[in-house]
Amino acid sequence: MSTFEALTGDLAFATAMRQINPDVVAAYPITPQTETVEHFADFVADGRVDTEFVTVESEHSAMSACVGASAAGARVMTATCANGLALMWEIVYIAASLRCPIVMSLVNRALSGPINIHCDHSDVMGMRDSGWIVLFSESGQEAYDNAIQAVRIGEHPDVLLPVAVCQDGFITSHAMERVEIYEDTDVKGFVGEYRPQWSLLDLEQPKTYGPLDFYDYYYEHKRQQVEAMEQAQRVIQEVAEEFNHKFDRNYGLFEPYRLEDAEVALVVANSTAGTAKVVVNQLRDEGLKVGLLKPRVFRPFPGKELADALRHLKAVAVMDRSISFGAMDNAGPLFLELVAALALHGVRVPVADYVFGLGGRDILPGEIESVYQDLIRAAERGQVERRVTFLSVR
């Protein structure tokens, strides 16, 4: 039977790591991810896992060790955030290019400068074109569930790509909440044994990883990554369907919340979606037909599915916890991706972007309600007042 435990989001992810029992974990501590590594180090020291835990001198070394272990045929996991992810940058791309199905806890935190250790999404949005699959998590429960699914997704023979599982720094990583923890045997049975197709340690069939790859084959290898990412969307849905059946969950590419009969809706990822659900319920009680769409899968970006889910609305707002500097109106990446998807799939609806919460600034229910009020006016007028609003900036 499963149990319900009071866990932080970091400990929830570390608990999933313990149950998965990866062959290798190489990681370096950085706030607010440090708890994950600390707890897992305890599991190693207490003999609760068989994992080879590699303590390294930097995040660049951590991802390098992960790539080496994965290329050798190991099941590999790690964790980082923000500046640590930035220090990994070179190897993050190499991990995807070498088709290493590493699973990483990415606790979202603002990138410097100035130095800030609190939540926004500038770290994950910076890696969005690196070739990693990216999953968002509203809560510690979802971070735990996504960690388990990520192993199956990344290791699928049609995919073989690394997976980043995101949750919001401090807001969920350090917040204690009720998390349902499944039986160890059930989790182990779900992830199964990893049987690598190619290993550096296969002496009968020698391999080369990471050689020079000029214009003769580089282009084809990039195209193979594209095909893997295209396959990943199907695999994510298949794994979610099996996971939902086994553990009584309801995961998909995204979560619609009171969306079916809504006239206007908000699109927002991670923990802020939980606050927005409260606002939706309050406004529904007042007779306003508002809804919410919470993205779960950011890479691969499910453009058609999102467009179809939002097609019936009169106005849409996106809330971005990051900025794409120099992009159209300095909007956020989620907005830019979504408006492109809506246009490509023939959805003509007023869409506005609200940049919020940079550096961990709180987002209050009243501020989210003001976004819905703007949406209601946009629906009446057939256009938004401003394309991009920097919400609650002084």
The secondary structure category is alpha/beta
Oligomer: single chain
> CATH top level of the largest domain?
Alpha Beta
CATH architecture classification of the largest domain: 3-Layer(aba) Sandwich
Task: Assign the CATH superfamily of the largest domain.
Answer: Thiamin diphosphate (ThDP)-binding fold, Pyr/PP domains
Report strand %: 15-25%
Biggest sheet, strands in spatial order?
3-2-4-5-7-6-12
Compressed to H and E, one letter per element, the order equals EHEHEHEHHEHEHEEHHEEHEEHEHEHE
Count of the separate structural domains: 2
Helix content: 40-55%
- Could you name the ranges where pLDDT drops below 50 across 5 or more consecutive residues? none
What Rg, in angstroms, do the CA atoms define? 21 Å
In whole angstroms, the N-to-C terminal distance is 50 Å
CA-based shape: globular
Q: CATH fold name of the largest domain, please?
A: Rossmann fold
Largest sheet: 7 strands, mixed
SS element count, helices: 13
Beta-strand segment tally = 15
Q: Briefly, what is this?
A:
Helix 7 links the parallel strand 6 and strand 7.
Give a description of the structure.
The chain has 394 residues and is α/β, with parallel strands linked by helices. The chain has two domains: 3-247, Rossmann fold (3-Layer(aba) Sandwich); 255-390, Rossmann fold (3-Layer(aba) Sandwich), CATH 3.40.50. It contains 13 helices and 15 strands. α1 (9-20) runs parallel beside α2 and α3 (59-71) runs parallel beside α5 (89-97). The protein is globular, with a radius of gyration of 21 Å. The model has no long low-confidence stretch (mean pLDDT 97).
